[in-house]
Amino acid sequence: MSEHEYTNRDVTIIWKPELCAHAGICVKMLPKVYNPKNRPWIKPENATSNEIIKQVNQCPSGALSIK
Fold first, then answer.
1. How would you label 21-34 residue by residue, b for 16+ Cβ within 10 Å and e otherwise?
2. Facing residues of 22 across strands?
3. Could you tell me the CA-to-CA distances from 51 to 2, 26, 36, 65 in Å, in that order?
4. E-assigned strands of 1-67?
5. Of the four listed, 8, 16, 48, 55, which is most buried by Cβ atoms within 10 Å?
6. From CA 52, how far away is CA 32, in angstroms rounded?
7. Is residue 30 within 8 Å of residue 51, measured between CB atoms?
8. pTM of the prediction?
9. How is residue 27 annotated by DSSP?
10. Cβ atoms within 10 Å of 41's Cβ, excluding its own
11. What is the pLDDT of residues 1-47, one digit of tens each?
12. What phi and psi values does residue 4 have, to the nearest 5 degrees?
């Protein structure tokens, strides 16, 4: 299973595309961090670490996690 990592130096978001259910919760909660039209589509530097952790914990598919 592939993994992609995105860091803001404090936390690292791990995204597993094969698990992603495309529920859109990440985009709705933190649109400045998650924008599927951009590359890279995850920019963790656009939110605080606490905001990112709170959002990742809401991911229904488990495609997002924190390292």
1. eeeebbeebbeebb
2. none
3. 25, 11, 19, 13
4. 4-7, 12-15, 64-66
5. 55
6. 11
7. yes
8. 0.91
9. H
10. 15
11. 899 999 999 999 999 999 999 999 999 999 999 999 999 999 999 99
12. -125, 135
